[in-house]
Fold each of these.
Amino acid sequence: MKGKLVFVALIVAASAILTSCTPSSGSGGESASGEATAMNGFQTVAAAEGCFIAAGTGGKIARLDYDNSQMSFGSDVAADLYAVTYYNGMYLAVGERGAITASDADAVEFASRDSGVKADLYAVAGFAGRFFAAGAGGTLLSSDDCVRWEKMDIGLENDIVTMAANHSYLFALTREGHIISSIDGANFSVQDYNTEFEGYNEHKYWFENITSLGETFFITGSIQGYEDVPMVMMSPTGEVWMPRAISEIDDRPSSEFLPLHLGQVGLGGGQLVAPVNGGRLISITDCSSCNVMHRIGSNEIYSLAYTADWVALAGQDFWFEVIETERLEIEEESE
């Protein structure tokens, strides 16, 4: 009960943006399929050793370098790829109809792997020495070598749309609000967040992305009934999820920027950063009224990855840009 009371006290700030909004029409379960909508381009990007790795429609996989050059990898997979990761010296990408393709870091070609399923795979992560892939119909797969894959039964039929891990926890989400978690990669628990906190929270949420930033996990999504309004929550353990309010952007009410659809968060310029619809990137600060919007370009940004000094953005029509994090630093106003 204590954890729920803590959350209720914090959720008030997250709802501030709703004061000038009205519910969107057609908002309901019918829109919550979680099915990937693969617009042409890079769907996903991840940090690797000394570079970034991006994957997308048509099975395209490329290395993105800090100087904004790219090198395409050979691959025998033509399926759309929705998620990519680099873990234990291996590149791993997953996608439609159970597609899995992998390569070690020294290779220049990817080779397909037999996942044993035909379900679309939307998420991938490395944790506890193993690789995990997840997707449609509650599909969850694990492997210790990227070759032999085992299907795990977690009792869910909802699509698993995103996954992230650090050294302590693995989390995966459904769009409808299920949180799947593990501390060892062998045993999993499932929490129906919206049901468990019904009556404590003012709103229910759609979950879209989860990211691990060091010791803390961040969920981005939207508010059910207000789908153009973003939601950001954070937790180090998954026991209590605390919202990050976005009340103002560029010294203006956040409602003036709607619709706001946030991608997964990363770090840049000492702040949280996240892709936003319209080819933009938002810096989310500790001050709810000090957030800053960056115009990056005209292409939609589908994915973000980061290192200590670089942020990679990738998206529509295989556009990408690797920028130095200092470019995203926010200048403090002098009094």
Amino acid sequence: MQQEPSKKQPVLGIRLLPGMGFGNRLFVYLSTRCLAGRNDMAFSVLDRELLEKSITVDGKKLFDLDYGEALSEKDFPVQVAEKDERIYIPDSEHDLTRGCYVAGADEKLFALQKDHPGENILLSGNLQAGEYFAGYEEKLRKWLSVNPALDHREYMGENVCILNIRGGEYAGAPELFLERRYWLDAMRYMKTLRPDMKFLAVTDDLAAAGRVLPEVRAVHGDIAHDYTILKNARFLILSNSSFACFPAFTGHAEQIVAPKYWARHNTSDGFWSGEQNLYPAFTYLDREGKLFTEEECRRELQAYRARTDFSKRIGRKPTEEELAAGRWQVAALCKKDLRQRAVLSLARRLHLIRRRDSL
């Protein structure tokens, strides 16, 4: 009996965009690769040279990545966008006019072949939900195996905690840039684990790190330097940035602290921006210095959604009157931020803040 020829495996593709940061590119690449496996599909990364360039340091590659099949956009008859849920809130001009991203995992991405059997699909979206790569942890470690020639281990130690302070465009955004109290509360918790704990900050912005936490030494280097210091840390305190997520996921840290409510740690009344950034490996710290597991955070979020009109707020844009009132609130938040900066600046100049417990 003649055997029927096997059908070619459909392909799930993703396009990397020029404006994406390194962490965002890793998320869309790895989530697409994992979702392709879940949907029994091959995968393809379009514009792969953008990621390849960013992982190359002095002619050496930080990772040896597989980009899947070499296809172009014309090879994908179907395009699927991940759900994009936003609420419009008066904590920044961006959130007031463009919306604050709050979406969680998109269930339709787990059944792509059911909706589009046998078709090549080009995916787009934020793609940071832990559900997309749950169960792929060991594969992630293999795929992101670091080139030994680029692996920085000079700051490893049993009593060393690495902080990842995100600056850059965050530093001028009061709703995003984590306040000093977050770092002090997180460091205080780490000292309960080891009274002899020493701290070092890895940052993309030495000036911003020095402004918010002058008592802790901060370092910044190339992509391999900053990434591998985070990956090799035994204790981690993260910012609300995607850059540190995969070093944290694929390393072997004993404790990882991250900001509760993620991108809106400073302003949230119970919502997450976004719900995708709830990960079992992280312990989340709130503005009162209390710690929560991922499961506890999810239960709280479910209760918040049940007792508020949150679902009705998703996608509802403000009226002209609401915009005008909202801009007053945004201005007040910016003034508060400037006052806090002025007080901290004065404390630094008067030498009231001294370097301590720093590596």
Amino acid sequence: MGKLTVICLVWLLLFAVTLILIDEQLSVNELEQTSNGAQRQERDNGTSQSSGFVALQVNGNLTDDFWERGVNDLPVLTVAVSYVVENVGNVSADVITVEIALDSVYYSTETVYDLLPNSEFAESISFSVEYDQSKTVEIEASCDDVTDFWSHTVDAVLPRHFSLGVSKFFVTPDEQCVQSVYGEIASDIFFVHWIAIRDWVGRNIDYVDDEDVHGVGEFWQLGRETLESRTGDCEDFAILLCSLLRADEWSIEDVYVVIGQNDVGNYHAWVKVKIPFVGWYNIEPQLDGWNTLVGDLVALHGYTAIYNFNDQYFTEL
């Protein structure tokens, strides 16, 4: 065998060994990469499974509202608000604090324990708003540094027209202004009370159409508003007179505001009282005491009563 042949064989052998070593190194690298990838995947999965979170969501809605008499005898709108606090996270919320405020003033606090994921806590509150005022309810739920907030503004706009459910709240015998004026009238009474009171109303309140004062065709006033402005139209006179007679301790069975209508469809308001030994008598509140009997009969001629109401009763005739 020649020297050249030996050299070629040796070169081929070295080349083969080199190829084998390179292939083994590539296999080792691929195995390490696969192993490292699996380890990273396991680590990532573990992180995903262990990084639980709490997320809160607060929602609410107005579920009921109705008018009633407030402590000062003036109408208030009482509302019921329902709210829900939901845990939309993936772990339990250990302690949730729910704080409620009205016009940013503290109202109440609720504490909710162990609220599970996709579970909710539901509750309701009620509060009153004075007529023609507004009030904002604010509900905030918090758990550690997680919070959510919901708010709603209630506008208590008093209906200023005839309303079956609200009309009686316009008669306010215990309201402060009504009581004060009644006291002034009563201190000077030397004859029949109801005539003296109707005389005061007829002489001290001026008739002005709602359109001229309020810019609308119909705007019922509370007794205190009529006393403050010293003006009103027919129902304002009647409401004030009924309030003053009730302040004079007339029974709720014996004095009413009357809404009536004549043959041509015009509406009018007056007062009727039940006089002992006489019976029911209709008063035109815009007239003074000298118009008792004849003046009242002439002024109310042609009107038929449709509704009666006072501060307690409402009756459709």
Amino acid sequence: MKWVMNLTHIRIFEKLVLLAAVLCLAACLAGAIASEEEMENAITADDSWNTLMEGNARFVSGEVASKDFPERRTELVSGQSPFVTVVTCSDSRVPPELIFDQGLGDIFVIRVAGNVMDPVVLGSVEYGAEHLHTPLLVILGHQSCGAVKAATEGGAEGNIESIMTEIEPAVEIARETNKTGSDLVEEAIDENVELVIKNILDRSPITKEMVEEGKLAILGAKYSLETGEVAVLAEVDSTNVAKMMTEEEEKVATSGSEEIPATMIPEDIIPEGTEPKSAIPEDIIPEGSEPESAIPKDIIPEEETSDAPIGDSLNE
């Protein structure tokens, strides 16, 4: 009887193993089918841009789509799945959801004056691209941007100066066109959009890698306050990212911006015949030599200079 029971147990075990194998195979097939469906249904960068442009056309015409906000709010309680990340200015006249006639949960929006890219803003860009899987990143400048206008005029105070510092390279490039007034401002706005794209790629290895791998495209655009239309300024994807980076670096390098002098001391306040204190670390100065004194010799009274040891002077 024991051998019969053992045989029964073996057969039961074999059936369990076979069942587990069948279930595992079914799960793998279901996963493969789901992945294939997701790839087929995944929205591309082109799809995202076309959706935005269709919405912008509705916005310009005034025939915007109807939206059921209560129902949409309920749908979004469990999470968000935007189809695009948009970086734009804080200007109250430039709300992306309205400009592109989109609803709740459609656009991952990042707003900052002048579209400047500090680590905090870059963190939001990376979150939209890497974690929310938006295939398109739009940098949206706009006509008559106050931040760019201020950068062309200079003289900012407080923390606004840090915004101006980020925009100034674009202004210097725009000045090369010899434009003035509002024409200079608009040229600088266009240049700033492209500079922001370069800064993102320079400062965010995560974003740059996604672009190089074809997982993300970046598009620079400009919004017209007068017409409401959005126009494309630049497109960057895996096919031209290296070329775009090189061109922007050359533009910045040849824009005429001067390097900050090492001493940081205006020359007109340094007495004649003197030099600022050496910035060379002491441990690399050859033995037997000393850096030249930063104290002008003509302000040391003659009677106080002496060849006698310091100890002798104290003992007098």
